Amino acid sequence: MGGTILVAGATGNTGRALVRVLAKRGMAVRAAARRRTRLLGLGATEVAEVDYNDPSSLARALRGVEKVYLAVPLVDDLAVVTEQVVTAAVKAGIRHFVKLSGIGADRPQDLLLGCWHRQAERVVESSGLAWTHLRPNSFMQNFTNNHLGSMRTRGLFHDPVGGGRVSYIDVEDIAATAAVVLSEPGHENRIYALTGPEAVSSHQVAALLGRAAGRDIRCIEVSVDAARDAMFGFGVPLPVVNAVAELYLSMRSGHLAQVTSTVPDVTGQVARSFAQFAADQQSLFR
Question: What is residue 243's DSSP assignment?
Answer without folding.
Answer: H
